[in-house]
Design goal:
The protein is mainly α. The protein has ten helices and no strands. It is elongated and about 60 Å long.
């Protein structure tokens, strides 16, 4: 049994390293750094004065949604990797080799986590430049980072399943972009709830991106309470319950 576990670990390390090296050589890790910069500049510069009039520190307000948007790019990256491996038959070939059943899936998710960590570090650095700070201490800062990576990982698992099933990197990327934009823009991440028409505010306030941004904003501020945190945790848990079995089945099925 120890040798089998070591073998699976070696397989995971080799497959994860292969994906990370590909991401590095193709510039995906550079994109992971540039993406939060684009979001930071694109939203903070034009909106900060408008929000300042309303008494809102926009650097503190906007950084959670910028982090969430960068996590969504990890989701799309994982979808493309899974779709490419299924399209080229690599996933099928690995199923005929003495490789652990879950190793390819875990390797793709692990590589996605590397991308998420890279984006998160870049986002925090850029946020610090514009004035974003963690005010509630190290514990809440760590919780902010762990929570962000948890969101990215859950989304990456769901995207991996879709990638294995569709086998079309281009069409899948386009399909995932639309809901990402809709939920991002129609959320309380970029502007407060009061900035939306009355009729759409219940959706804006209660949809998952808004709930995630509320919790992350509190983590970076005075500290998040259970009253605020339990809702996004339910969203994450529900998505994980749906996505994990689907990803395992999609990765293991023979096409």
């Amino acid at each position: 049994m120890p040798s089998a576990r070591l073998s699976n670990f070696a397989q995971w390390r080799a497959l994860t390293g292969r994906i990370v090296r590909t991401m590095a050589t193709k510039g995906e890790l550079i994109v992971a750094v540039v993406t939060p910069l684009v979001f930071t500049v694109g939203f903070y510069l034009p909106m900060r004065y408008v929000m300042k009039v309303s008494g809102i520190d926009y650097a503190q307000f906007v950084m959670p949604i910028i982090v969430l948007q960068t996590m969504s790019f990890t989701m799309m990256s994982n979808a493309q990797i899974a779709a490419f491996e299924s399209m080229t038959g690599l996933n099928t070939r690995m199923q005929t080799m003495p490789i652990g059943a879950f190793v390819p899936l875990v390797s793709r998710i692990s590589a996605g986590l590397v991308r998420s960590v890279t984006s998160l570090i870049a986002a925090i650095v850029f946020g610090h430049v514009i004035g974003f700070r963690f005010s509630a201490g190290v514990g809440q800062a760590v919780l902010f980072c762990v929570f962000s990576l948890g969101v990215g990982t859950v989304l990456a698992i769901g995207a991996d399943a879709l990638g294995c099933l569709t086998k079309s990197p281009e069409s899948l990327s386009q399909a995932l972009t639309l809901p990402t934009l809709i939920f991002g823009m129609l959320s309380c991440g970029f502007v407060p709830e009061g900035g939306f028409p009355q009729w759409i505010r219940p959706f804006v306030r209660n949809q998952p991106i808004s709930q995630l941004s509320f919790a992350m904003r509190d983590m970076a501020g005075a500290g998040v309470s259970w009253h605020v945190l339990w809702v996004p945790l339910v969203w994450l848990g529900g998505l994980a319950v749906c996505f994990v079995p689907l990803a395992i089945w999609a990765s293991a099925r023979r096409s």
